[in-house]
Amino acid sequence: MNTFLIGLWAFGLFVGQNPAPTEPVRAVVYSPQGDLVYAGQGSSLVMVNTSDGSLLKKIPSGFSQVTALALSKDGKKLAMAEGNPGQKGSIRIFHIGANRLPVDGELVFEAHKDLIHDLAFHPNGDMLASCSYDKLVKIFSVQDKKLLQELKDHSDTVNSLGFNHDGTLFASTGSDRAVKVWEVASWKKLHTLSDPTDWMYTLHWHPSRNLLAGGGVDQTIRVWDISKDSAKLQNSVFAHSAPVRQLRWNPSGSHMVSVGEDKSWKVWDTKKYTEALTKLGLADTPFCVAFHPAKQELAIGKMDSKLDSMDATNGKMLQVLLPAKKPKPVAGSITPNFMTIGTRKVLTLEAKNLQLPLTAKSNDPGVHTGKLEQSKTGAFVLEVHATPIAKVGDCKIHLNSASGEQLEWNLEIDRYSRVVESNENDSRVTGQKIHLPATLKGNLSRAGDCDWYVFERKKGDEIAVQLNQDADAKNFSPVLSLHSPDGRLLVESSQGLLAHKCEQEGAYSLEVRDREFRGGTSTGSYRLHMGDFPLVTSIFPRGWKAGEKTIWKLEGVGLGGKNTLEAAIPASAKLGEKVSLDQLLGKPLTGGDLSSVVASFTPEVVFKKSDPATLLPYPGVGNAEFTSAREVHVWEINARKGQRVLVETVASRIGAPVDTFVEILDSKGQPLPWKLLRGTARTFTIFRDHDSFNPGIRIEAWNELAVDDYVLIGTDLMRIRALPRNPDDDCRFYQLDGRRLGYLGTTPTHHYLGQPIIKVEFHAPGSNLPPNGLPQVVLFHQNDDGGPRFAKDSHLVFDPPEDGKYLIRVREMQDRHGAGISYRLEVRPPELDFEIRVNNNAIRVPAGSGIPLNVDLVRKDEFMDSVEVTMEDLPKGFHAPKLVFPSGEVSATFSLFAEANTPKVDAGAKDVTVRARGVIHGKTVERVTKLKAPLLADPGDIQTFTGVEKLVAKAGTNTKLQVKIERRNKFEARVPLDVQGLPHGARVLNVGLNGILITPRETERTIDIQVDSWLAPGEYPFVVLARQEGKNLQYAAKSVMLQVVR
Amino acid sequence: MRRFSCLLIVLLVACEVSVAAEVRILPAEIRLNQLAQSQSISVGLFDGETFVKDLTDKAELTISDPSKVVLGKDFRVSAKADGEAFLTAKTSMGVARTLVKVSGAAKEGRFSFVNEVIPILTRAGCNSGACHGALAGKGGLKLSLRGYDSLSDHFAITRQNLSRRLNWARPEDSLLLAKASGIMTHGGGRKLAQDHPDYAILKSWIAQGAPMAIPNEPQVLGLKTFPAKLRLKQGDKARVLAMAIMSDGSQKDVSQWVRFSSSEEQAAPVDQDGWVTASGFGEAGIIAIFSNQVATSTVTSPFANQVDSGVYSVSPRNNFIDNLVLEKLRSLNLPPSSLCSDEDFIRRVYLDMAGILPTTAEVTEFTRDTSPQKRENLVDRLLIRPETTDYWSYKWSDMFLISTRNLGQPSVWSFYQFVRKSVADNTPWDVFARSMLTVRGNTLSKGAANYFVLHKDVTDLTETTAVTFLGMSLTCARCHNHPLEKWTQDQYWAMASLFGKVAIKNGENAGEFLVETVPVGEVLHPKRGLPMPAAPLDFQPMAANSPDDPREYFANWLTGKENPFFARAIVNRVWKNYLGRGLFESEDDLRASNPPSNQELLDALAGYFVRESYDMRKLMRMIVLSATYQRSSQPKPGNELDEKYYSRFYPRRLKAEILLDACSQVTGVPTNFNQVNSRGGDAKTNYNGYPKGLRAMQLPDASVTSRFLDAFGRPERAQACSCERQTDSSVGQALHVFNGNTVNEKLRSEEFVGAKWIKDGTQPTEMVNTIFMRALARKPTEKELAKFAEVIQQAGSLGDKARREALEDVCWSVLTSREFVFNH
Questions:
Q1: A470-504 as b/e, with b when 16 or more CB fall inside 10 Å?
Q2: Sequence-separated (6 or more) residues with CB below 8 Å from residue A293
Q3: Rounded to a whole number, what is the distance in Å from the CA of A680 to chain B's nearest CA?
Q4: B-chain residues within 8 Å CB-CB of A448?
Q5: Quick one: which H or E segment has residue B766?
């Protein structure tokens, strides 16, 4: 040890900052995968899991110090240098197994007469080089530890060495200040580099080029460009304020790390040899460093026995790898991993690192755990009893140690003895033949796979099927379908439960598939329990008046003939609350989604097939089931002129797979016309087919169309919200929740390219209109889907033309019928109300800018009046204007703005209150929602200004608005502007194909806003925002108030 | 009517006409109902019901009472006065006589715009696409193409432009006549001479006020041509006449107005006067089209072979197919080839039925089997093989355009699985068609519903349904009456109306749609702007206010036993699959104006299929067990030129997918399908849904990336047309096989079956034997064995690497041979 080092050590010792370490980390290398590190700590080799810092293995050395480590390129051999100072240096070569840990058969040999300072494998793995305090460099055969070469050219301690990337060159350096380069093929010395001015500690070759980096006591990192014929100093950089202890290139050679005795480490950008990162203040002197092979991570071994994992990009400590943590307990396999209800089994639970004593228990009271022992192999052996009341499905078995550790295994509880799926069962013909009852274990082996099982049943037999799937199956939405012996589809279920009573004898078949035909590992495996166990698949009616007893009809099998139940929904239930079958029964029974009911507070009736029409009280609810194909139900109501009636079905919204179609008929059963539509102009859909949701439809021409016009495409009546801004723009139609709205009971459907679009005007039914070459269409009181928020349920608004009896006809659009295909038909007066909704995701507002914030108003039952919205409790420095939703409007956008000097908002800041006020039946009603307090974001590259707070515009004219941006951070690219939240009837005119652009380096743009003549006078806030396209960020100006005047 | 004829025994050259031949006048019955009405006639020699020689210009023709009937130089008889007269034809081969009845001769002829004027204009070419029938018309006059829109045409001629085209007072000065006859300059030239009978008709029509219709005007209900069957020697000529069948029960000579064409111009071209010339060998349909009615006569021109009639009687006849094929061959003097060998049969039937090669063990077992029913047993085993299910699932997937080009991946699987289940269950074709066309519901639950998602446009739906299930193209009739077929624009839109109530909605999940029939929904006729009564082709319309699903009405008609198209279309597809050539060569061009190569066989197959309840497997079994299917592909002297009548098996290149699978099967190296082309075809995305070992024929999606499949003509599944699949061979294909990656990478692969042979030290002769058996289902000839084994043997002396390379070369030689690439 040189005097300088001694001095440093002594300094630390005397000032008391560095108590003498017992086990310094002198060497470290990562495994090729980076999942563990090998470290020489004190006198041992330790292996640490880099994911959690747990100790995987520790191999003590027979000497006082482990001084160097080297890993062969293929990761299959690890060389360790161990020794006693001044006495000897020995080498051990370990064979590394598949788990990256040493296996038996290590090679040990004495190599030097003093400590070995460095080791290196030749890239092909057949040679190992070592250097020592004894001034020698030696080359050994890895195969048989034979000394191949001894290099004696160094005149002092040799501290570091290495082979270049292709193994043709070799370099060594030491305290003689010289770097020597050798030709490997001949071991002829090629170059002696004498640039260093003091002891050299470290050398490292570039991973793919012949660049050699070195450092040492002269505190300098030097890089030489070396070939067989020349060696040039490429770079020299003063690196640390104390000796450079070690340096390493990263796997790509783009960066280098150095550790210095000044307790610092630096990451170097090797393009310019400048510091990419500098971290000072390590707790103790670093001795060694290694780059993670795949991540931007480092391991730094230090004098203080610690090996730290650091982030190479920001210098943050990731974790302490040494001293190693106690290994975490790990659960292995459970064998067997399934058992049948009513049986006992002895299970073997594989576990690691779990401390005795242990207790075992299950999370199912029906699964009892018994005697627990540890086997000779270390696994745990547990007696388990799945009692008859055990729940079919997955049961968790836990082992708890006295110290609070817990491991969990999944035990599959089968209803019946298990059968395993065989291959080639992908059709009814090739289906796997099984005998019921059985629990079948299978999986969808690939995309598109369908598994078929065939079993014999007699007439009158019952079939109950329950499917359990792996808990971690990410992409499996099972669909079960049962087919009769002659191949007819009997029942299909997507809830994993299926029941059927056989009406004929023969071979029935059951198909299992994924709803989207996915397969492979991501769908996991499934278990099918097939037998005649009690199973309820649906209940009818699907709701009733709370507190009033009724007879519920249960659909299912295994019910012992008891298919009815008389019970009441608790009177305490809330309107619309779902009550489970178990609550009605008072005991658990296997049942699916369709076995819950909803509570109501109006009179309820059940459809009577025997009657020509079932009388429905008003207000009231009718309940009916589609029991046969093409069944049509007719209900009768008495209604009065002037009394608006809402007619709607409730089915798909409560989980029933039903798609209703509702018609209102006159008392004679004839369809009741609603409106006569007369075509007045025509255009066509273009560019693409259009689905039934998208509010945008590309149209051929719009010179005869205007905002708020109604148009008919196919059978859809829709209304124009905004005309296309250019030929590459869609015509926008009124929408809610992103779904196009249908009017007068029509339901949006798909439209093909080139379909006629007819602009229509409304006339009273029966009007005699002269032909004009365009169609006249009568709309009846009919509805398929009620629109967004009604799912597939129907909804009609009916204004009775006169007092009297009316009929309501209901049918199912998909031809579904049978158990669970039921609906509730509500007739009631409108119940006006509204609700306010704001996206409550974390909002981050750039200081000095705003962000557009969208507010939705949910109008219920034809509530159309205006609503005022205010934001309360905004953090200091934030602004939001008052919003007014005009009559019928459902969406508004404003700028939530943060002043430039807005103080930082605490994460736990008070929520913002969004308060909406409207008038219903003459009374002011308030509805409130909460919004998480907005946070402050970086000011970013752009700031947007409009220069005005209010823009006065006369209805029917165009108005200009000047928008300016301030470019920051040298941001010069183009900036698209957007205007959001303009009221219906106001729009931006000068939108080009690329939107509204501020071109590169420009900073302003004038926007033309047109205000339609019909827009009501008032104040409407809107937002102007600029986009930073590269970062996908937006910067809004303060809200501008558009004041519309006549 | 009594028919007068004279039998004359004539001795003619053997094989041309039987000893009992008869001279006849055509038509056999002549009725003329008004003054100057005329009828074209011809005189011919008949062998039974077959016309064998035209004698018209050689016959001495006389009229018994010229005061009643006049005979013109153009072989037309015209009415002069009410009464009867005999027309007698004396020839060297006999005498024929027919009675001509005249009634209503006192009535002045009244001419109909639809029944006379438009046919005259059509025959003159006035309303053709090149003249006034062009979309923009010509010279300011725009007529509907071939007169499909008579109302518009009548308006244009009589009223448009201040009625400039007609002169009511002096009809001969009408622009219509002056231009047509060349009196005035006419861009189209002279179309109608002033002395032409049609000129007179037009002039009379104008003089009569140019009415759109005459009172009680009959409509054309049908058309017939005669003689129906002709057998002509090469170089012979004969005339085909045409008669319109009118709604009032009358018949009317329209020979001068029909449009004639020949289905085989090489064998028997026809001119526009109906004169057919036997210029080659074979059979041709002479098609006459008049007023959207089509009729066909068949002309046979036997090959110039000397075939012993015993050839046909000893040729194997396994079922009715063989009877009808041999009958056709006999009529054409085509000798049938003998049956193929067992080796050829097993390879052929495996490839055609299941799309795979037989294994060595299967070939060995089959060839050793001495059972007389062994071919039958083999076919029965193949019919229920899963590979057969894959094969037909793929074929139908082509037809139904199942592809991620058009649908999302889940929908592709859903649709494919629907098809596959139907094939696996051998669902009767009528049930299958009905289930597809009347489906309602979620596209992921009911795969067939994707058919409607693919064809949202009602015109697309109508036309695709016609192509798919009727094997016919209706597209022309979308805009105008079909020029080559009987279908009118009105019929098109009436059929389209059957699909007008289909609605598609988004499901709750992305990529999921709901198909349903809504109570309202009209399809408007593009010209009339009104909905047409929903009606299938040539069938009564559905009741106007019926609450039923119109699609079910359509399905009832489609799958009805009386439907003349449904069974024939599918039978022809299946036949083409096995025989390589369809009875209608193009699978989706079934029409009256495209006669099949063996009408009797097509009818019999369709009848069998219907009687067997549309059972596909029974149909396939019947076809492949016929001796016709089992004939050798080796030509026999005399049938080398036959490419149409099944005198031999026609070799054909393996389809792209089958060829790729065959390469995989021989080499033991499966193909990886792990990328899918984007919808635009300009990008690829990784897809891991197809496990290694999946055959190309098991792919549900035609957009799976494969240069090999593309090179060999895999269809894109973009349009419902069998023409999408390219079956021709090309230089590109040859280069792909010779130098491309597909075959060479399989041979170089570590999985190559030969790697194990090298490792095991297998003898070169065994290697060669095995390669031949795997690829060609036969052992090599002694010469082949010696040559190939020598190559391997010699290379083997240089070490295993050289031996492997030699083995790869041998295998390459076999895989690139025509014998491998073709099914024969």
A1: beebebbbbbbbbbbeeeeebbbbbbbbbbbebee
A2: A30, A31, A32, A33, A34, A251
A3: 14
A4: 413, 416-417, 689, 700
A5: helix B764-776
Whole-angstrom Cα distance, residue A814 to residue B512? 14
A750 and B513 within 8 Å at the Cβ level: the answer is yes
What is the distance between the alpha carbons of residues B231 and B466, in angstroms, rounded to a whole number?
Answer: 34
SS3 B659: helix
Mutate to test the interface with A, among B388, B411, B413 (most CBs of A within 10 A): B413
Interface predicted TM-score of the whole assembly (ipTM), two decimals: 0.83
As a whole number of angstroms, the distance between CA B229 and CA A51 comes to 89
Task: Give me the residues of A, 771-790, that contact B with CB < 8 A.
Answer: 773-775, 777, 780, 782, 784-785
The answer to whether residue B552 neighbours chain A at the CB level (below 8 Å) is: no
Chain A residues within 8 A of B529 when measuring between CB atoms: 773-775
At A7, the pLDDT band (50, 70, 90 cuts) reads very low
Alpha-carbon dihedral angle through residues B765, B768, B770, B772, given to the nearest 10 degrees: -140
CA distance A516 to chain B (A): 5
Chain centroid to Cα B211, Å, comes to 40
Nearest-angstrom CA–CA distance, A802 and A643: 10
What's the sign of the alpha-carbon dihedral A607, A609, A611, A612? positive
Tokens (6 digits) for B721: 């047309």
Beta strand A782-783 pairing with A632-639: unpaired
Q: What angle do CA B764, B768, B774 make, to 5 degrees?
A: 140
Task: Please name every residue paired with A386 in a beta bridge, in sequence order, or none if there are none.
Answer: A367
Q: Measure A729 CA to nearest chain B CA, in Å.
A: 21
List chain A residues with CB under 8 Å of B458. Answer: 752
Diameter over CA atoms, chain B: 105
A 467-506: CB under 8 A from B: 479, 487, 492
CA distances from A504 to A434, A457, A460, A493 (A): 18, 8, 7, 21
- Helix (H) or strand (E) run with residue B602 in it: helix B599-611
At residue A1014, the 3 state secondary structure works out as: coil
Identity at A624, one-letter amino acid code: A
**pLDDT per residue as tens digits for the range B571-630:** 999 999 999 999 998 888 888 888 899 999 999 999 999 999 999 999 999 999 999 999
End-to-end CA separation in angstroms for chain A: 94
The size of chain B, in residues, is 824
A669 in B contact zone (CB under 8 Å):
no
Residue A429 touches chain B, beta carbons under 8 Å? yes
Residue B375 token pair: 């071919």
Stretch 451-470 of chain B: residues touching chain A, C-beta under 8 Å: 453, 456-458, 460
Q: CA-nearest residue of chain A to B426?
A: A429
In this structure, the strands spanning A935-937 and A844-846 are parallel
Kindly compute the dihedral angle of the four CA atoms of residues A249, A254, A259, A262, in this order, to the nearest 10 degrees: 150
Work out the minimum CA distance from A491 to partner chain B, whole angstroms: 12
Return the residue of A nearest to B531 by Cα: A775
Contact in structure between A179 and A199 (CB atoms under 8 Å): no
- The answer to whether the beta carbons of residues A519 and A445 sit under 8 Å apart is yes
Structure tokens at A167: 């193994």
Query: DSSP H helical segments within B195-341, as ranges?
Result: 197-207, 310-314, 320-331
Task: For B259-318, write each residue's pLDDT tens digit.
Answer: 999 999 999 999 999 999 999 999 999 999 998 899 999 999 999 998 998 999 999 999
